[in-house]
Amino acid sequence: MDVRNIGVVVEDVDAARTALQWALENIIRYGDIITLIHLYPFTSSKSRKKARLLRLKGFQLALSFQHICNNFSNTKVEIVVTEDNQERMKIVESVREIGASILVVGLHDHSFLYK
């Protein structure tokens, strides 16, 4: 069986956690790699402190998602936290970079997919 890379969008909403839980129970196979992807909002170069704080909060959120994954045996988890670009295409770039074969997204009213 081939090892797959499964991308999971990390957002601080219940829909994202539910989507991860569903993926763990229904599509993740032994040996698959789960890459947790969090995009924090674009900030101007003048706001380095703000960008650093957003990045830190993104890592903390991703670690809480990693904790959910740890309840399932034999899952390897990677974390990607990056600043979104103004065109909202960073998620596409991230998926390509990690070579994900599946992208898991929890849809909700304020999802980035609707923007």
TrEMBL record:
Residues 4-113 form the UspA domain. SUPFAM superfamilies: Adenine nucleotide alpha hydrolases-like. InterPro entries: Rossmann-like_a/b/a_fold (IPR014729), UspA (IPR006016). Pfam families: Usp. This is UspA domain-containing protein. It comes from Lupinus angustifolius. The lineage of its organism: Eukaryota, Viridiplantae, Streptophyta, Embryophyta, Tracheophyta.
